[in-house]
Design brief:
Elements: E1 14-17, H1 21-34, E2 37-43, H2 50-54, E3 57-62, H3 73-83, E4 87-89, H4 99-107, E5 111-112, H5 117-124, H6 126-135, H7 151-161, E6 165-169, E7 179-181, H8 184-202, E8 207-211, E9 217-225, E10 231-243, E11 246-252, H9 259-275, E12 280-288, E13 294-300, H10 307-314, H11 318-326, E14 343-350, E15 352-353, E16 359-360, E17 363-364, E18 367-369, E19 376-380, E20 387-388, E21 395-403, H12 406-419, E22 421-423, H13 429-436, H14 439-443, H15 450-460, H16 465-489, H17 498-508
Parallel strand pairs: 1-2, 1-4, 2-3, 4-5
Antiparallel strand pairs: 6-7, 6-8, 9-10, 9-12, 10-11, 11-14, 12-13, 14-21, 15-16, 17-20, 18-22, 19-21
The structure holds ligand MV4.
The site of ligand MV4 has 16 residues, from strand 8 and strand 13.
Amino acid sequence: MRTTSLTDRLVISKLLVANRGEIALRVIRACRELGIASVAVYSDADARALHVREADEAVNIGPAPAAQSYLVGERILDAARRTGADAVHPGYGFLSEREWFARAVREAGLIWVGPPAEAIAAMGSKTAARTLAVAAGVPVVPGTTSALRDAVEAREVAETFGYPVLLKAAAGGGGKGMRVVHSADELHDALASAQREALNAFGDDAVYVEKYIDGPRHVEIQVLGDTHGTMLHLGERECSVQRRHQKMIEEAPSIAVTPELRARMGATAVAAARAAGYVNAGTCEFLLDRNGNYYFLEMNTRIQVEHPVTELVTGIDLVQWQIRIAGGERLPFVQELIVPRGWAIECRITSEDFQNGFLPSTGRITSLHIPSGPGVRWDGGIEVGSDVGLFYDPMLAKLIVYAGTRDAAIDRMHRALLELQIEGVETSREFHLRMMEDAEFRSGDITIQWLEAKLPALSAILPSANDLRAAVIAAALMAERDRNAVRAARPDVSTPDGATAWHRAARVEGLRTA
Ligand code: MV4
């Protein structure tokens, strides 16, 4: 029984979580801490999933394909009506950034735990977002704010900004429909293919031009705004370590951001959010170049995968505050007192086979050891027996660590990754171990292009399966020899059994035992 009075004033008493996996669990945990009942929704493939069992109630919303379940707004609203939920949290992905769904939730008389539909719309179009940013005095990459009419106009615009330029889809995001153009003679074909890709991906062929920024970092600012006019920023996340527009490792703070730059970028993000009429948690993405110039790219109008690193360095529970804000509460924080403390790193643990070019891996989790100990957080959606298929995103869990300094956080992540054991599917664990051992990653001197250039060397240093087997056998033999020597000299001392000796020997040899 809860006895605190603080949360008893919450206007939300039952919240439906319109998502699955680790983020559904994250939201359910926040609900439980706030004394709010939770409703899970699930597809046929997720009938036995963790988020279903952890929620107070659960409703089946259809077959495994997301297009027939997690993406069907009507099914989710039905589930809310049937269970008497009074609020909906969309998590990330799925329906989280669909303006029509935010509107439908509101029109059904439910509380939407997210930004106003109008703010989602304002930031959904990249050209509209650029126009809005320019009007608010927010620095954007030099370029156009409206779609190109044809290749002739594209050439004129490119001439004014100078090559290389980048063609981008107005409806885009995530790199689809993007083309780098180095000279005028590439422009015509690049424009045609960018338009074709944009039409295919977004049903809209509008493409615009930006000056191409070479070798920047991806730094994003978390914002949090309430319905009473308070808009705060919670500092930055460094997200430059990504592959094919998928982030792999995120940190807070960024090694490239000084307190002075943080204050300026934070004020910029707050200005962009205010201009969009933003409320709730959101993120402004920036490119940060080598000279400390930063450019607003886009705003993500949802809670993001990497939100935990910000939670750890600020001590502010973003998901709880999303819910409290949706319920009309005031943010009780003062901007000047939100200062990042220590260092947090997140590794995305995916069911992708690092040693086979990150090929998606499927199967049933047969064994799972979750890291713990000082400064370790596991935001996961799997357990032994979980089936990992191809219907949904391959992210199984996020391993997040917190320590006093960046070096200590990297050491801690390395230790936590060594503890992590997952059997049944191939995972990205080995990739992350190699990253934590990499001198360039540790130096922090990286850009958004760094990882893809690094990957061949990172994979190459892996010994072959046969070499590993031979080394493990050698290590086990050495362990057995040592054990016998100890036994002979000290019959009174207990010696480790074979498995323990093997484990220790492998560790001494620097081998991973799974
Ligand atoms: C850019 C850029 C360089 N110059 N814009 C990629 C996805 C979309 N959010 C914007 N992106 C970029 N826009 C200009 N003018 C480079 C990227 C980019 C990128 C940005 C953030 C994180 C990873 C990236 C990987 C490749 C390219």
